Amino acid sequence: MSSVKNVINDSYKLMLLKDYLREAIKEAGFSEVDIQKTPTGTRVGLHVTRPGIVIGRKGSGIRDLTKVLEKDFDLKNPQISVIEIIRPELQPSVMCNRMSQHLARGTAFRRAVMWTMQTIMNAGAMGVQITTSGKLRGDRSSFEKHSKGILPRAGHFADVIVSEDIVHVQTKMGLIGVRIRIAIKERYIPEFELKAMKKEAVIAKPPVIEEKEIEEKEIAEIAEIPADPTKPRTESELIEIEEKLVEQVETFEEIEEELK
């Protein structure tokens, strides 16, 4: 098999793996997966918001997931590491999954868009753009774009600080696509910087830590930690709590009616 076919085959398998993990560990807030081939096997890094759900009791979730990856996806000796996302509101894939769950539950798409944009901006994003397309309001397909803050559209600056993700959700009206683009200013590293300004920046703004890798020795400890009853344990519980808050969000149409 040629190198081109190998690349296409690996990309196709990675796409199938992402689709499987997006559904299998949806309650854990799955964001993305990293695969690295090593001489001893395959290292699989799972980026999630709730690592305890993936790990399971006494590591049972990790063991079951390892068997699936080895049998169904032909990964040789998969070694799974769980990476916790500290600020999930700045991850487009996580926010796409949350917004899709709101739409699947019957929430009006504009209320879901306004709530998602507000949540992302409150987390410290520089800008956000949400595009919804499909059967939004009637039989005819349409699309809407909503933006907030500053979001570079092109150039190297946009490639560095802007990340995006796309998800599709089936509703009663039909299929709806959601695309979220988030700009994070902390990712940009200036090419030139004065030494005095650099020292002040280090003192004023410590480095932002968005992810934390959980080592094997911590897996058992996390699995045995009792859950906090005041916090949602899964993504579904979080969506149920947010539903009441989403209903209170004002849409552009309501604001226009008040101004008339």
Features:
single chain; alpha+beta; GMP Synthetase, Chain A, domain 3; Ribosomal protein S3 C-terminal domain; 2 domains; four-stranded antiparallel beta sheet; 8 strands
Question: If you had to describe this structure to a student in words, what would you say it looks like?
Answer:
The protein has ten helices and eight strands. With 260 residues, it is α+β, with helices and mostly antiparallel strands. The chain has two domains: 84 residues, GMP Synthetase, Chain A, domain 3 (2-Layer Sandwich), CATH 3.30.300; 135 residues, Ribosomal protein S3 C-terminal domain, CATH 3.30.1140.32. The strands form two sheets. It has a four-stranded mixed β-sheet with strand order 1-2-3-8. It has a four-stranded antiparallel β-sheet with strand order 5-4-7-6. α4 runs antiparallel to α5. The longest helix has 22 residues. The protein starts with a helix and ends with a helix. The mean pLDDT is 80.
